[in-house]
Design a protein that fits this description.
It is a single chain. About 30% of the residues lie in helices and about 15% in strands. The protein is built from 13 helices and 15 strands. The longest helix has 26 residues, at about 5-30. The strands form five sheets. Strands 7, 8, 10, 13 and 15 form a five-stranded antiparallel sheet that branches. Helix 2 crosses helix 4 (about 115-135). Bound molecules: copper (II) ion. Copper (II) ion binds near residues 214 and 252. The site of copper (II) ion (CU) has 4 residues, from helix 8.
Length: about 475
């Protein structure tokens, strides 16, 4: 083959790839732009009504129908066994799973966590299209619950979600929210985005938004972080459980508030992407862990994305938020710097959290490394036999008499446990989703943070509400710098 022929073939190949990509985007992402609004704004009320109408229709559909409330909720996750399932006759154990079920990205091993933001963006987007079709509201866009806004009114559950008889109502939620009281107590600390927005690495941002506000809000709606909480009748498990639907991964997708919550998480992610610190996902990031992206369009047809498709669409969605444009960010990640870090301390305190409000651990670097403004990576492994509840805050070297607050420079990050008791049955562990355990069989969970660099690192763990649940233990703290 001549050189010229080769070049022609390569050029034609490139053109073809682009045409296919363009076709894919236009087939699945429309030209029209929609606006996702704060669910309390006057303009959003028509969307809330449309959502209520569509959800009513979806709840009446059989669970075999991909457009049903049940099917859509189960795409996130479904309990492994449900005896005498009153809501879905064809589902009893995980062997009965239907196409695309059990696919969210929350497991303790955490490998697939990298897909958390992207998978949920596409999941919520397909749900939005279904609601648009079923409600007949052509301009429908999914509202968001702006609980992270600095406005007390935004901390309240929208009345349509509290109205018994509304298709958006769910009784298995923290009572005070369903009674119209705002999100309150120490949980408000987990809504502070100062540290989150300061991250300049995608993995750090993704892992940390997953812990808070994402996980913290799931837990709060689910059970109010109350370790000795009441038991709820859980209509999905058909039993009484300690968690409301939102507090447990296999039932979270069935509470209609899930969608408003994830619309807000999607908005915060986009705000970070648009900020000077924001970094875009690359195809290499997403390809490093294989993940299945299968959803359904508004006609009930299966839509499958490979990683190339995913990268093509995630910053070219057909919606914006009322205060945030959905678009590509400008930055590429400074990966080299992060990869150059070396382990400078690997401490194994083997320490059980006690009942005090704070627990302290000192980690010393062996060679008396100097303190500096450069960043250290902190990798904390904890273990437990029963999933702990509530949120923990972690600080490094807070000043004497410093009042601990997540906006302080000593603040390292949040630790929450939504999704910590998960493993995906019947799937290959190579793709993540397996439970990592200690040699004595305790579930192991890994958290990663960034902090300034010191000679010695005195860690303070601060527990919201002060009440510990479960038997949480710090297995190890590793410092890289
Ligand atoms: Cu979630």
């Amino acid at each position: 083959m001549s050189k010229r022929t080769k070049i022609i073939i390569i050029v034609l190949g490139l053109v073809l790839v682009n045409v296919i990509g363009y076709y894919f985007i236009n087939k699945h992402i429309s030209e029209k732009r929609y606006v996702r609004k704060n669910y309390f704004s006057p303009e959003a009320q028509r969307d809330v009504q449309a959502l209520e109408k569509a959800m009513k229709i979806m709840r009446q559909k059989n669970c075999n129908d991909p457009l049903s409330w049940y099917y859509q909720g189960a795409i996130h996750w479904i309990p492994d066994t449900i005896t005498n399932n009153p809501l879905c006759e064809s589902y009893h154990t995980y062997l009965d799973k239907k196409l695309a079920w059990d696919n969210c990205t929350h497991t303790p091993s955490g490998k697939e966590k990298l897909h958390f933001l992207v998978w949920h963006r596409l999941y919520v987007y397909h749900f939005e299209k279904i609601v648009r079709r079923l409600s007949g509201h052509e301009d429908f866009a999914l509202p968001y619950w702006g609980y992270t806004n600095n406005n007390p009114k935004d901390k309240i559950l929208h009345p349509k979600f509290r109205e018994n008889g509304s298709s958006l109502y769910e009784q298995a939620r923290f009572d005070s929210l369903n009674q119209g009281f705002p999100i309150s107590g120490e949980i408000e600390r987990a809504l502070d985005l100062t540290k989150l927005m300061s991250y300049t690495s995608l993995k750090m941002f993704s892992d940390n938004i997953n812990a808070a506000p994402h996980g913290a809000i799931h837990d709060y709606i689910g059970h109010g972080n109350d370790p000795e909480g009441k038991r709820y009748f859980n209509q999905i498990t058909n039993t009484y459980t300690e968690d409301g639907l939102m507090g447990w991964v296999p039932t979270a997708g069935f509470d209609p508030i899930f969608w408003m919550h994830h619309s807000n998480i999607d908005r915060i992610w986009q705000q970070w992407t648009n900020s000077p610190n924001g970094v875009e996902f690359t195809i290499d990031d997403l390809k490093s862990i294989p993940w299945d992206y299968t959803f359904f369009d508004e006609n009930g047809n299966k839509v499958t994305y490979d990683i190339e498709d995913v990268i093509r669409v995630i910053y070219r969605m057909d919606y914006d938020f009322d205060d945030t444009k959905v678009q590509k960010g400008g930055n590429s990640d400074n990966r080299l710097r992060a990869n150059n870090q070396k382990i400078v301390a690997d401490h194994k305190p083997n320490l059980l959290f006690n009942t005090n409000k704070t627990t302290e651990v000192v980690v010393k670097t062996p060679n008396l490394l100097r303190a500096s403004k450069s960043k250290s990576k902190v990798i904390i492994k904890v273990s437990f036999t029963k999933r702990p509840k509530g949120s923990y805050e972690i600080y490094v070297n807070p000043g004497f008499n410093e009042t601990l607050k997540p906006s302080n420079l000593s603040f390292v990050g949040f630790m929450t446990f939504f999704g910590a008791d998960h493993e995906l049955k019947g799937k290959d562990c190579g793709g993540g989703c397996c439970k990592e355990t200690t040699s004595d069989g305790r579930t192991l969970m890994t958290f990663e943070y960034e902090t300034y660099s010191y000679t010695d690192y005195k860690f303070t763990f601060y527990k919201h509400s002060g009440l510990h649940s479960g038997d949480l233990k710090i297995e190890s703290i590793q410092i890289k710098r």
